[in-house]
C-alpha cells in the first residue's frame, strides 16, 4: 500500500461524487486538492498530518492528545489518498500511519470558512424593545429555556429573569445554572444594602456612573447577577445599563485617535482595603481581536489610579478617559430600568456597564443580592447546549472579553 499512486484513490475505488473534495495529491510540502466546484487549492502537508485524531494520535477536544507538533517533521510525506468511502478521506503516510478525515472539515480549512467571530447586536437606550426576558421556573427546570437566555447574553450581553423568589438562596440557585459561582474577596454571594458604614460604593445611596466591576483584577468578573430582594420603586435607585461595545463604536467613529489610545495605552485601576486586599492592574480599556474588533471593555471611574504616562501623552490619555465617561453618561446611551423584587439582571461585565441613580435610604430599603460567574463557564454552557439545540452555533467564536 505504501507504493500506491499519489492521486485521488486506490485503483478500483470509486470517488464519492457528492463530497466537497474530488481529488487529493502530494505536491512537495503541499497537498493539491481538487474541489467539487472545479477549483484547485492546496493544503499544508504538515497541517494535515497534525490534524489526525485517530486513537494513536489522540483527541484534542478531550485533551487526551499524544501527537505533538514536534512529532511532525518538515519533510512529512503522504503516500496515498482514498476518497472512495462516502463522508471520509483516508490518507496513508510515508511511515505507514493511516489517518481519516472529514471532507467538510478539510474544505473549510482550504476556504478559510471556519467559524467566524460572532457579531454582537449593539444597543443604546432602546434596549427595552429587545431585552430578553425569561421566567425563573423555566430556566431552572428546562435546558431549552436556559439556552434561549444564553443566546440573549451572547447577542446583547444582558438578559432579564423574572419570577425569581425574593429569597436569599434563590440567587445561587439561578446563577448556578449558568456556571460555577466565582468566589471573590466579598464571598460567593453578597448583599448590596445601603448602610452608613459602607465599605464599597454599592453600599451607599449615591448615584453611580455606569462602570464594569473590579477592573483592578487581572481577570475581572465575567458575568454578574443582580437579584432584587427589596427595592424602593419611586424613590430612586434606577439601574442604568450601557452597552460598552456601542460606546466603543461611537468613540471609534467620532474620536478615532482617543479610541486608539485606549486600545494600546495601559490604564491603571486599583482597590485597597487596608490590611485585607490590595489589587492593582494595568490594562487596556478596550480589548481588540486580531481583526481589530472589540472583544471587551474594563472601566470604572471610581477605581482609576493616578495614571502613568510621559508628559506629552498624559493629557491625551486623560481626555480619552473623559470622552469615554461623557459617552457613558449620555442618556441616549443608557437603558434605564427600575428593578422590582423577583427580577434579576444577568449581564456581561466585560461588555455591559452598570450604574444607578441616587436614592433616599430613609424612604425604602434597597437590597440586591449579587454574584459573579467567569465568562468561560457561561460560554461553555452555551456551546454545550448548542450541541443539542442549535448545532450550527456550537462552534461560533464568541468575544473573549477584556483580555489585557
Describe the structure.
The structure is a single chain. The protein contains 9 helices and 23 strands. With 404 residues, the chain is an alpha+beta fold. It folds into 2 domains: 21-111, NE0471 N-terminal domain-like, CATH 3.30.2020.30; 127-393, Clavaminate synthase-like (Double-stranded beta-helix). Strands 9, 10, 11, 12, 14, 21 and 23 form a 7-stranded mixed beta sheet that branches. The protein is elongated, with a radius of gyration of 27 Å. Residues 1-17 have low confidence and may be disordered.
Secondary-structure class: alpha+beta
Discrete helix count: 9
Using only CA atoms, what is the Rg?
27 Å
Query: Which architecture of the largest domain per CATH?
Result: 4-Layer Sandwich
Question: Into which percentage range does the β-strand content fall?
Answer: 25-35%
**Cα end-to-end separation:** 52 Å
The helical percent reads: 10-25%
User: CATH superfamily membership of the largest domain, which one?
Assistant: Clavaminate synthase-like
Instruction: Return residue spans where pLDDT drops below 50 for at least 5 consecutive residues.
Output: 1-17
CATH topology of the largest domain: Double-stranded beta-helix
The tally of beta strands, per DSSP, is 23
CATH class of the largest domain: Alpha Beta
Basic shape:
elongated
Mean pLDDT: 89
